[in-house]
Amino acid sequence: MAATPDLFSGAVSPALSEPLARRFDALPSDWQALAPRFLASSTKTQLCAAVDARRKAGATIYPPHPFATLHELAPAAVRVVVLGQDPYHGAGQAQGRAFSVPAGMKLPPSLRNIYAEISRESGTPLSANGDLGRWVQQGVLLLNTVLTVEDGAAASHAGLGWEAFTDELIGALGQQARPLAFLLWGAPAQKKRTLVGPQHLVLCANHPSPLSARRPPMPFIGCGHFAQVNAWLSARGDAPIAW
Question: Could you give the residue numbers annotated as active site?
Answer without folding.
Answer: 86
